[in-house]
Write a structure and sequence with these properties.
Blueprint: H1 6-83, H2 89-115, H3 121-137
Helix pairs in contact: 1-2
């Protein structure tokens, strides 16, 4: 087997540094990719979470609107009843208004309770874990 010449040593050293840099960049990109995948998963989870909250809030606003209309109609006919017109459906209209207001209150309470749920907890946990690992494995120079 022939002895390597100086050009072979230079090529090996250049490839070694390049190989190390390639491995370093590859590792950094793999780390970034893993974190971005995690953020993507949690982003989709957050979108669903806030979509549900948005739907509940819209439902609550619709129920409040219907409740308000039924309440106004009931007040108008209640005043008419006090003046002298007697109809039974005034109380039904007031009952419908009460049901709508109650439904709106329930939907808004549910939306408010879901709003307090923390998001991106897995990402934050991973980042804290990474910071702790870096602190414990850091070697002072």
């Amino acid at each position: 087997m022939p002895d390597p010449v100086s050009e072979d040593f230079r090529a090996t050293e250049a490839a070694g540094i390049f190989g190390h840099l390639t491995a370093l960049v590859s590792a950094k990109l793999a780390y970034l990719r893993a974190r971005l995948e995690l953020a993507g998963l949690e982003g989709r989870e957050a979108a669903v979470h806030y979509g549900v909250i948005f739907g509940l809030a819209i439902g609550g606003l619709i129920a409040v609107t219907f409740g308000y209309f039924f309440f106004v109609i009931a007040v108008v006919f209640l005043v008419a009843h006090l003046i002298g017109g007697a109809t039974a459906w005034i109380w039904v209209t007031l009952g419908a208004a009460a049901v709508h207001f109650l439904g709106a209150a329930v939907l808004l309470i549910i939306a408010k309770s879901r709003l307090g749920t923390p998001m991106f907890s897995a990402s934050l946990h991973e980042l804290k874990h990474d910071q702790e690992w870096l602190k414990t494995n850091a070697k002072p120079n």
